[in-house]
Amino acid sequence: MTVEKRNPIPVREAIDRVVSQNIYTKQIEVPLEDSANYILAEDIVATYEIPRFNKSPYDGFALRSKDTEGASGNHRITFTVIDHIGAGSVSEKEVGPFEAVRIMTGAEMPKGADAVVMLEQTVEDKQSFTIRKSFDINENVSLKGEETQIGDIVLNKGQQINPGGIAVLATYGYTHVKVFDKPSIGIIATGSELLEVGDELEPGKIRNSNGPMIVALSQKLSLDVASYQIQEDDLKSSIQVVRDAMSKHDIVITTGGVSVGDFDYLPQIYDAINAKVLFNKIAMRPGSVTTVAVADGKYLFGLSGNPSACFTGFELYVKPAVLHMMGATAIYPQIIQATLMEDLTKANPFTRFVRAIATFNGKAMTVVPSGFNKSGAVVAIAHSNAMIMLPGGTRGYQKGYTVDVILTESQAYEMDCFI
Amino acid sequence: MTVEKRNPIPVREAIDRVVSQNIYTKQIEVPLEDSANYILAEDIVATYEIPRFNKSPYDGFALRSKDTEGASGNHRITFTVIDHIGAGSVSEKEVGPFEAVRIMTGAEMPKGADAVVMLEQTVEDKQSFTIRKSFDINENVSLKGEETQIGDIVLNKGQQINPGGIAVLATYGYTHVKVFDKPSIGIIATGSELLEVGDELEPGKIRNSNGPMIVALSQKLSLDVASYQIQEDDLKSSIQVVRDAMSKHDIVITTGGVSVGDFDYLPQIYDAINAKVLFNKIAMRPGSVTTVAVADGKYLFGLSGNPSACFTGFELYVKPAVLHMMGATAIYPQIIQATLMEDLTKANPFTRFVRAIATFNGKAMTVVPSGFNKSGAVVAIAHSNAMIMLPGGTRGYQKGYTVDVILTESQAYEMDCFI
């Protein structure tokens, strides 16, 4: 058997090939309360203005600005309180000269009034108060339509529904919303060396950690995942399991069995199911043998059996694919720049991804590897909140260099940042 | 009625007061498959080495390094293949002089062998192959224990179980793990101006958007949330609803009704339930009236009724509190620095938080406000993936300044970043 020659492509091109496939999930309608993390399949248009009416942004007194002219510390002006309204109520009175309505945050401005004096800016008596400064027209008033006008697109097709999106939909009374369905994922951890988590260890074998890791990575994207039985390295049954998983899921992920070798059946499986291989070698470490194929409008990801490579492959290729299938416009991981706090001097012709801890130290964003970082490493993944991205080449990277970093978790350890 | 005087404290001190409370959830044991996002209540110690045995990181041939001495392009050395092992198998043969075992990625090194030649580095014949370079002892071998030794702490108490953590637990055979329970959250959207999402609009009223937004924010933290009925602004029934929510939840969040004013019952509610108020004024915009109290080992958050202020209050105070209660060591939001791409010249004595879009443009991290950004704004929250944090003072901020940014969502729009 000869060694298959594979042609490595750059990371960026690999991601491009993945997200340029004409593969989308179907459009469905979901209730508002279940819509978080879905991608909108329609623009949401403002059906009324926000604010819907001129309203007070503070607790205070609504009055006529022209009555405040000339007010000062030496010349306080007195107003008579003629009504008292909470949010949700509307005063039936009209504010006349040197009159005011006591008004709560969010309440509609009464007729006649065009400014709000905050409680803190007054000296109150029983039915009156005085002020010591003048107010402009519309001072301390949230004007009708200042945020959105009727017909404004307030949420865009392709936008992920985040908590703010939920608030916008609620505001406009959307009890249901049209979205792209979430893809379902089937996971097949391949390799006859794999034991289940509850199994006792046996010589030469290890427990399956990639399967549970991919389930957790998928759940972070709010996706449903089914795990398929670990396969003996047998071609015929492997094809059957992949076929079975593909009939039930939009994405099928295999881990392991993607190396170029005698016991690697993936190429033959892809042949058997008529899959089109987008690439089977990427100029990256770890995970250079990561393979992505498509068949019947579905994605097949062949991730490495090495945990760090498997993790990296999921973050770089599966995640953008999921967001692409769901019609999202923002599909790439957040990249930041940080100061490297350790030497990484080993040069590599391929782009290197290093599991890492990124922290803002109050002055600058810093990043260090999160531990032993070979392809097969697993512990460093657990301790990372980021991946350092080192362009390939003939040089290494020294402490103090600025490097690009992909954030993979949202929490940080320090609060040296807060003012 | 007089205006209550409140003393604003800095954001950092407010967060400090919240996370220094001696309030923790109880410890529970959960199955591995449900353990994602929980915080570990125990150190996880390595019960065996990783790797457990010397193994091959590549598909290739295991041989004795000393037999490769002197190999070159002009002097190829030939090896005879005596066995053939896949991952999970162990060769029963011992490698002798100029012998080799064909070995797959992850397989245990056979006796006698101390180096691996990658397939790509060989010219193969039927039962033999030649090489053109020499190999060092342990070259291309993953050594037993090189990642972890027995007794190493591989996951720390207080660490959040991320997908990598799941992989580590699976590796060591933990089918169950001891964690801090997740706090349950009760949400009470207060204010008689509030309609339900499905209600028709009425004069002076708006639909409740903060309630659904907080549910979504809580779900992002994998928390269960119960929503309580919107209250008429009536003190007695309000106290009863808060008492009821507190009897069932670890955290009770109210939105609205926290302004200093006639219809604000929160201070009286806190009195009635003997709550200790940690602060009721923060030197921040929006959300300066955000109030946090504790009672009976539970948190009460009084968030603003203004959507942007409510969102900001949740991100800054509720989120760290949740992580603190769960025993987490990393409880602060990730802060980065970015170049401001728009003038924000309005000076403010308080720290300002501006909903924003952060993007790496291939050269630098940039950030712009995500739209109309007053306290009452809702649409800009939906379009944001970050918050700009502007220290208070007498000056504004100009385009080109470097500012601190809190990341609130993980996706980005551009891929100008990838090499």
UniProtKB/TrEMBL annotation, chains A, B:
A GO biological-process term: Mo-molybdopterin cofactor biosynthetic process
EC nos: 2.10.1.1
CDD domains found in the cross-reference section: MoeA
GO CC annotation terms, alphabetical: cytosol
UniProt key word Magnesium: yes
Cofactor: Mg(2+)
Keywords: Magnesium, Metal-binding, Molybdenum, Molybdenum cofactor biosynthesis, Transferase
Source superkingdom: Bacteria
GO molecular function: metal ion binding; molybdopterin molybdotransferase activity
Gene3D superfamilies: MoaB/Mog-like domain (3.40.980.10), MoeA, C-terminal, domain IV (2.40.340.10), Molybdopterin biosynthesis moea protein, domain 2 (3.90.105.10), Molybdopterin biosynthesis moea protein, domain 3 (2.170.190.11)
Signal peptide limits: none
MoaB/Mog domain mapped to chain residues: 186-324
Reaction(s) the record says it catalyses: adenylyl-molybdopterin + molybdate = Mo-molybdopterin + AMP + H(+)
Enzyme kind, highest EC tier: transferase
Pathway: Cofactor biosynthesis; molybdopterin biosynthesis
One Pfam family per UniProt: MoeA_C
Keyword Transferase: yes
The family this protein is said to belong to: Belongs to the MoeA family.
Function: Catalyzes the insertion of molybdate into adenylated molybdopterin with the concomitant release of AMP.
PANTHER family: GEPHYRIN, MOLYBDOPTERIN BIOSYNTHESIS PROTEIN
Protein name: Molybdopterin molybdenumtransferase
Organism of origin: Staphylococcus shinii
Phylogenetic placement of the source organism: Bacteria, Bacillati, Bacillota, Bacilli, Bacillales
